[in-house]
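call fold(seq) -> tokens
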Amino acid sequence: MTHTNNPTILIIDDTPAIIASLSAILRPQYRVLVARTGEAGLNIARNEPKLSLILLDVVMPGLDGYAVLAALRESVLTSDIPVVLLTSLADASDEERGFELGASDYISKPIKPTILLARVRSQIEVAAHATQLAANEQRLRAIINGSLDAILAFDQAGMVQSINTAGVTMFGYHQEEIVQLTIGSLVPEMANKDLEAFIQDHFLKSPSGPGSFRSETEGRRKDGSLFPMDLALSRARSDAADIFVGFTRDLSPQRKAEAIVESLRRERVTAIGGMAVALAHEINQPFLATVAYLNTARQLLATPLAERSATVEETLDLAADQIVRAGHIISHLREFVSSGEPNKTFQKLHDLIRDALAFMIDSLRSANIEATLQLDAENDLVLADKFQIKQVMANLFRNARQAMSNSNERQLRIATSSIECDMIRIDVIDTGSGIPDEVKARLFEPFATTKDYGMGVGLSISRSIIEAHFGEIWADQNPFGGAVFSFTLPLAVRGEAADE
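ret:
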């Protein structure tokens, strides 16, 4: 009985008796196809997708077995099919010729059933193992080439044997160029080492087995530029020769991120220092007022009751109010210094603007700046961290004050408006000296500041805050002189606010 799931064998022979004999032996275990000429056999082999083995007679009219075998090996469709030659030729040179053309085995006529079955089974198993190994190699190659890290292999002499796609990209060479290089060409540290001694120390003498090595070092690209990288080496042992596999990761993005974080940290410290200087003036006002009220209370206590213009209690209450105001200023600074992730709650943005302006109003008045509010936005409900938004407003008010220090006209206008996409826009408009062109493009970058203009102390932090609230911040020239700093915030969904 023939089973369609069994391996398929093609018999190519011009002798009907041999075809019948071979078919009778094979059909109980295999699916058998038959061709009586070399041409017919080639046609079947090229169109049969599941051919496991070909039994090929050497001596045939027309295309003989050698010609058929040569044609099979030349075609990509049939080059991997195992071929067993059937021959009554006894000359060793005939066998040698067949193997040179790509035969897998020989079976001599007359054919013994047990020999035939054993040879067929062996060849099919070998072919199956070869197919499995090829599939495994393809999967492994796909995994290696899919890695985001560079993976390369080199021998004990340091010659690069292979590299994956990420390695080609990382080092900037073509695949064929890299395999002509030494590991020292890619990793300068390895060029400076006695490679044989290095291998002995880290791998061959390792008490725990094959051994490994890991280090942060530098890689060299094709253009000669160096970059930081993490290098890990392992040893693949074999009977032929040891291969060392390197896993490398480009640390440039990590170093860049670390540099940005450090810049932001320094910028924050700088911003805190600048803010503290500005707040020193703010906090001095309520302290001076407190001293004045306390002196007034002392004078009242020394004045006869009937002649007093105010009660001592009222005067002390005014002094207490000033101390509370100073406490609010200190609390505001502490909130800014210690704030981490935004603590967003539903807020009325117009109230936050009024609070921030009240915080700065004495400083603005002392600089002869007239501040006006134009809060035209109908809906001002936002989901925001109130301390951070107040800090943005205070930064912008402080920068406007500095910008107008030499201006004849000193007007500060804070306006809001509703814009599309359920956003609210805030404009802080001053009549100062404007924004220098050389500064404008990098105004919100860390350390982009001009002392004369007073910008940059908190602008990059302001940008971080606004972007963390899913808004945008930018600056333009005021067409009437001065600057306009604007930012947007998304409006809160009313349903969410109601739930809150």
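Residues 450-457 have pLDDT under 50 and may be disordered.
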